[in-house]
Amino acid sequence: MSAARSSDAVRAGILITGTEVLTGIISDRNGPWLSQRLREIGVDASMIQVVGDRPDDLLAALRFMAAEGMALIVTSGGLGPTADDLTTEVVARFTGREMLLDARLESRIAEILKPLMSRWPNLDPDAILASNRKQALIPRGSTVLDPIGTAPGLVVPPLSGTRPTVVVLPGPPKELQPMWEMARRTEAFGAAVAGATTYTNSILRLFGIPESEIAETLRVAESEGIPLEQLEITTCLRRGEIEVATRYEPPAEGVYRELVEFIARRHPDTLFSRDGSTVDEQVASVLVGSGRTVAVAESESGGLMSGRLTERPGSSAYFLGGVVVYSNEAKIASADVDPELIGRFGAVSTEVAEALADGAASRFGASIGIGITGVAGPDGGSDEKPVGFVCFSVSASDGNRITRSTRLPGGRSDVRERSTTVAMHLLRRLLSGEGSIAASEIRAGVRAAGRRSS
Amino acid sequence: MSAARSSDAVRAGILITGTEVLTGIISDRNGPWLSQRLREIGVDASMIQVVGDRPDDLLAALRFMAAEGMALIVTSGGLGPTADDLTTEVVARFTGREMLLDARLESRIAEILKPLMSRWPNLDPDAILASNRKQALIPRGSTVLDPIGTAPGLVVPPLSGTRPTVVVLPGPPKELQPMWEMARRTEAFGAAVAGATTYTNSILRLFGIPESEIAETLRVAESEGIPLEQLEITTCLRRGEIEVATRYEPPAEGVYRELVEFIARRHPDTLFSRDGSTVDEQVASVLVGSGRTVAVAESESGGLMSGRLTERPGSSAYFLGGVVVYSNEAKIASADVDPELIGRFGAVSTEVAEALADGAASRFGASIGIGITGVAGPDGGSDEKPVGFVCFSVSASDGNRITRSTRLPGGRSDVRERSTTVAMHLLRRLLSGEGSIAASEIRAGVRAAGRRSS
Fold this sequence. Notes:
The structure is a homodimer of 454-residue chains. Chain A is an alpha/beta fold and 454 residues long.
């Protein structure tokens, strides 16, 4: 991964509170999400800090971020009704603002709690009203963000001076994310990030080349005169794909287009997305548009390929069914694999992958069948077919077919997951009308271990 | 979640470096992992901070943690060969130690690089040697941790005074984790955490009750005289299960046992693990021990149940196969569901769940069949069968069977994943010889929407 950075960006700190996150019991999803949203509006998240529910630690972190020059601090968590939930109070102390009861907010929260209280009749109504009141105490002069759950958010401007402004958001991502959008529309937020540049953010995706090749392409692009210094480019390997995320000021639009064309010329087979769409989105949209249907017969991936194809709402329009055929008997009985093929080539072979694809399509009456067989490990590998060796076939009722074998890196879970990515890309290629595929396609940071096409 | 905390614990800060993590491109796994390891040895991680590759931010974070009284700071990342990788240098500045070349380390790294260099013959050997030398420059007086990858780690004691000691580890979890164990065995590390108490850590798991009920149980336990102040108890809802993690000093062992018996008496049906084992581990171990086999016919969970049952190495010993039957035609053709059942009760019904379980078992010749059908959403819900309504059946060849329906909370991916948890628990109950199941079992923070047992 590499990234350029503008030096005069508006800087922000993200402050995650919660002992669950600090002790590693749950992992923080808000920090990365907020960081990406900040980046989109031209604000650099310079630090993400996780603290527990000790008010002293929270206050120290706020002061540290202010001292380091953050124009904006975004907090997540600590807004619940219990005594542990101290964020609002500490932010009031930090900004030097007194706490006052917001009557409108108090009745708003009471309204939200009404249906909850009728569902749990044993709860003590007085205790609930006290909690309710606690959540309606806010620092004077803050802008209230109406609750999505039961906790309100806040935008708290500095009492004096120009920074930092503190945006106070609840911890659950389902509440935090829409409330972040509310926060962005407030006047106080606008004032805090007034100096931020507006950027355009674009994403390219490539499959089947190592990250180092993209780094090399960027070097060559620069040496051939494309002024890449006008772009902030970040490359990253994710789930076997390369993501090239670029942020630029609008006048650099032409430079970005030049770069995209340059990458497309050097990597015509592997650049599969110019608009940030994922392979899953592309496959789903082509399937819906074409009325074609798919079915899966998988061994090594153990159900994950069907699981991935059914991830999206509406997938029942094109996903007809799947079989998970771990044993040889199951391959024969449930995917109509000829036992002779298994005997001659082994259960892990391109021949059996093809038979699985054909069996899946005919069993479920689908126009496309997908077959996957391989060695997920940690046991079962051999010299010829080591752990990570996986065979794929995608076959269409029009006679088109793509069959490949490859060796995937990593442990059992990596191999299982990565194999669904390879299969998705083979499906994408088949759907785009290609019945054969460049060898470079399948490398995915990996060596091709053999291939076969019919 | 709730947690007690001892006030005089040794405190540590975790400092994660790397622009990929800060910008939200990859999520940090090291912070939570290190926090849990620290907790095990009686050290409280008081803050986790993520910074980019700006040396000023890194230095400011180190100084902040020192000012906040951390006895130990553990850093991850920034040890690579490129100019961006600055952690060692900044730690030297922070501790006031000069950098010197460690000749033994230099030749150790050269040895590690040899096979890599022969694999990539186009690399410039001079550039590599320069990088190699950069990685062998360390603060005088540090203890070197031999590389697992190519980057060495360090334990850097304070130049004067007693704290903080800095443990410098590489970013990739596969390198960081074993090198953490090396670090722990060094003399410098032992000196830094000398005051830390040795704790015992134990985990209980419950399924089928809301977190508030466990909180109530803890309150009652305390009021009945169990001295819970001797235990640090953290409760957490994870994947639909309640985890009760307790840390205590060895003399409190008796108090902990008392608590476990108290919880077992109040929640006999829902406490399923006293030794921290997960439901997946328990199911796998019973299946391996008993020689019984399973097969799956799933609709709503789209392959994820098979995927979960095949997650573990060696699962082919008991998992025979699965079918993913999204369409009614597939349910009939591939899981032998009687079309009349679908007509009379609907595809989402306990009757069809039972037929799916039976069909799976007979198709694959397994001794246990699992059937899952439901409404994953966001579309397809009705008043009677809303989004999240899922029917399960687990049936054994000995005639034993558990069938349930429930309404699971959350969006499509939550419902899909949670349904595999419910099915795992029904399988566990069936394996433990129970053919019927308490209603409380299925609540999982959810209301039971109906049930049926035959």
